Amino acid sequence: MVLRFAPSPTGPLHIGGVRTALYNYLLARKHGGRFILRIEDTDQTRYVPGAEAYIIEALAWCGITFDEGPHVGGPAAPYRQSERKNIYAQYAHELVERGWAYYAFDTEEELEEMRRRFEAAGMVAPQYNAITRSYMKNSLTLPPEEVRERLQSQPYVIRFLIPRHREVRFYDKIRGWVSFHSKELDDKVLLKSDGMPTYHLANVVDDHLMQVTHVIRGEEWLPSTPLHVLLYEAFGWEMPEFAHLPLLLRPDGGGKLSKRDGDQLGFPVFPLQWKDPFTGEVASGYREKGFLPEGVANYVALLGWHPSGDKEIFTMDELIQEFSLERVSKAGARFDYEKARWVNQQHLRHKEPRVLLPLIEPFWRDRSLPPADDLTKEKMVQLARERAATLPEVVEVIVSFYLRPALPLHDKGIEKLQPPVVENLPAWIEQLPSAWEKSALEQWAKSFAKALGMGIGKVLPSLRLILTGQEAGPSLYEIMEVLGQQEVNARLEGFLAVHGVRKRV
RNA sequence: GCCCCGUUCGUCUAGCCCGGUUAGGACACCUCUCUUUCAAGGAGGAAACAGGGGUUCAAAUCCCCUACGGGGUACCA
Fold first, then answer.
1. Three-class secondary structure assignment of A108-140
2. Residue A160: what are its φ and ψ, rounded to 5°?
3. Which of A180, A240, A325, A356 has the fewest CB atoms inside 10 Å of its own CB, making it the most exposed?
């Protein structure tokens, strides 16, 4: 079993591309097959520097690895179509010789003119096909001597000669039998005038040469599949199996998710942040938003595919185990950012704090938090992890208790303070336990409350306000434990210095 | 326009192939519970077979039509 992912380096890979790559990867790994990365850079006008490196880095980040590709080499190298240019020309000419294709010399203006003419005559979208090709300048209409002469002196393309009256049927692993009539097809260009192949020729030739057995791609390719089927027939090659994945739709359902959506939708559409090399514009990525790669892969896997049971949270290895094309659905799936966050949260909760530490580092730095030793950080992450869905949210929770509250306390906080707690605080600071540990601290707080004849529910919120300036957050006992005796003392004394004295006056 | 693909809770979907389910799960939402609080957790709730025809004792499930949505229609991929 040989599968491939074949993006074109025209910009960053968006999340739909990630899913296509993921499904290919999952299937290859599940069946112990080969997985190839092929760069389809046959359109030189759309080449974007940095895009190929981005694609490789983004997929690696998601945990998707390749057995062959431009970055790792392999027996079918090269894996960039621009570096295989001469291969395609040879196959295109072979097709001409065998009567499956022909040379065409029409200029862009002439094509434009042809379309205008036929449109005026009532045709809606004239194609270069069985009817129109007889009016054009090509090796089917021009005398052989003129063809030979033009071949020497001017640019030309090679077009596929669509056979007439053919029902083209193929089996799609997801959709079942799909059929087209050849009269709907046009004589697609196979070899462009710059000598480069179009996608259609290149992907068929390469899939054959690389012995690809399964072509899994987006549904947008379904309409050009009959052309590919005919190409396999023309070459006399065995066809791979096809599976066309449902599209990833915008949350509003108004079309497929595209690169141009950028940040317009309120969530990233790219795995990694991307800076456009031409405009300098920056589009955000899941990595920079603090998502875990396993969270992104897990959520994306769920868009259009359903596991056999009710379980939804999977590691990559479990996905490999579980995945099958039979359980891929046909209808397009809308992207739901809220659920993506939830899936990520599930993964976050299952990660060890010490593993999370290095991942959190950049966000920690962004908030310019004071340094702390690893053990303290781990404890703080442990506390914060429970109430966050992404890495920066973990940091935000830490910020809420790790930073000293601003003094004097904000008015809303002062209002909520229980006066007896403030008044009796000096005496109780003395009673703080020497065994600095959360259960001792809990005992201390409870004794404090009891002495005041108040419920713990009245006392703790005030203490929380005094210690952190916040009204909500993780367990206060645990916060005190991780902050340490010195820091807690300093915060209590600091508060008293500002608010305690004033109270007494 | 034409061609192709699709249509189950707001969203992702199970069920459809092999007709008979109180149409299941998850996110989000609501209620309760636990908790010092906020989350998380636990319990519960509201919420869907696009419409119309067939076939059948029986249709979400099979067939046809309509509507709607999407994709394609380049010397782009």
1. HHHHHHHHHHHHHCCCCCCCCCCCHHHHCCECC
2. -75, 140
3. A325
CA nearest to A384, candidates A266, A465, A290, A313: A290
Asked if residue A124 has pLDDT above 90, the reply is: no
User: What distances in angstroms separate CA A463 from CA A338, A380, A405, A422, A448, one per listed residue?
Assistant: 34, 19, 12, 9, 11
Which positions of chain B lie under 7 Å from any protein Cβ? 1-8, 10-16, 24-28, 36-40, 69-77
Residue A183, nucleotide of least CA–C1' distance = B3
Q: Is the CB of A176 within 7 Å of strand B? A: yes
- The CATH H-level superfamily of A85-203 is Glutamyl-tRNA Synthetase; Domain 3 (3.90.800.10)
Give per-residue pLDDT as tens, A351-410: 999 999 999 999 999 998 888 899 999 999 999 998 999 999 999 999 999 999 988 888
Intra-chain end-to-end CA distance of chain A, in Å: 83
Q: How far apart are CA A405 and CA A491, in angstroms?
A: 8
Please tell me whether any atom of strand B lies within 7 Å of the Cβ of A350: no
- A34: three-class secondary structure by DSSP: strand
| pTM metric for this prediction | 0.94
Catalytic residue among A259, A289, A351, A458: A259
What is the CATH number assigned to the segment(s) A405-505? Answer: 1.10.10.350
Complex-level ipTM = 0.95
- Report the 10 Å Cβ neighbour count for A245: 27
Q: Which of A66, A95, A92, A90 is nearest to A79 (CA)?
A: A66
What is the Cα–Cα distance from A208 to A232, expressed in whole angstroms?
9
**How long is the CA A477 to C1' B58 vector, in angstroms?**
63
Q: Identify the helix (H) or strand (E) that includes residue A152.
A: helix A144-153
Residue A344 CB in 7 A reach of strand B:
no
Per DSSP, the residues of A71-112 read: TTB-TT---BGGGGHHHHHHHHHHHHHTTSEEEE---HHHHH
Q: Which two tokens stand for residue A343?
A: 């899936």
**Does residue A16 lie within 7 Å of nucleic acid chain B, judged by its CB?**
no
Give A165-189 pLDDT, tens digit per residue.
Answer: 999 999 999 999 999 999 999 999 9
Q: Is A259 a catalytic residue?
A: yes
| Average pLDDT score over residue span A465-484 | 94
Determine the distance between A11 (CA) and B42 (C1') in angstroms.
47
Strand B-contacting residues in A 312-341, CB cut-off 7 angstroms? 312, 327, 329-334, 336, 338-339
CA of A140 to C1' of B16 (A): 50
Most distant CA pair in chain A, distance: 111
Q: Is the CB of A461 under 7 A from strand B?
A: yes
Q: Is A7 near strand B, with its CB below 7 A from some atom of it? A: yes
